[in-house]
Amino acid sequence: MQIAIIIAHKNFRDEEYFIPREILEEGGVRVETFSNEEGVAYGSEGGEVETHSIDDLNPDDYEGAVLVGGSGALKHLNNSEIHKLINEFEKKNKIVSAICISPVILAAAGVLQNKKATVWTSNMDKSAIKKIEKGGAVFVEESVVRDGNVITADGPEAAEEFGNVVIEALKQNS
Fold it and tell me: Is 14 exposed, middle or buried (0-12, 13-18, 19+ CB in 10 A)?
């Protein structure tokens, strides 16, 4: 089994990348990391990871995709190229997952239509809920939500549970 993790080249959320990646690898899943730029990507907490260019990502080579959040996610990953890739994964009945603010990208891509989903929010900022609902999602106030092959999580505190739900879904689909 192989999964693609997609991160922003600058300011991805470290624990939302490193914790699920470790869980996936310990579960026997081969992980490859992609970004909007090739080379070393930098997390908001100082983590570093070598990435492939998103241009080299072929959904046929993977059982699923994980979109990591962080302040760089919407700035660098919410674009038509990523939306097209996410749609290819979804059309091929592969796992499509996102954590933190990244479910907004799934909504923009159209894959949350009539799906239960969660997203990062705070007492001061509920705008992400409106964005996923505008994309057709049914917001559920839970840490991790799985609706078929779509998995969403609400932030770094959910990283471990998110990783476990993703690996469970991959094993069920294989």
Answer: buried
Q: How far is CA 119 from the centre of its chain?
A: 11
Q: Render 68-104 in DSSP notation, one character per residue.
A: --STTHHHHH-SHHHHHHHHHHHHTT-EEEEETTTHH
The pTM of this model reads 0.97
Q: Is residue 30 scored above 90 in pLDDT? A: yes
- 8 A C-beta contact, residue 31 and residue 25: yes
Residue showing tokens 């690898």:
25
**CA dihedral sign of residues 61, 47, 156, 73:** negative
Q: How many residues does the chain have?
A: 174
Domains of the chain, residue spans: 2-173
The Cα–Cα gap between 128 and 99 comes to 12
Longest CA–CA separation in the chain, Å: 41
The owner of tokens 């624990």 is 15
Per-chain mean pLDDT for the chain: 97
Q: Report the CATH superfamily, name and number, of domain 2-173.
A: Class I glutamine amidotransferase (GATase) domain (3.40.50.880)
Q: Please, are residues 139 and 119 in contact by the beta-carbon 8 Å criterion?
A: yes
Q: What share of the chain is helix, strand, coil (3-state, %, to 5)?
A: 40, 25, 35
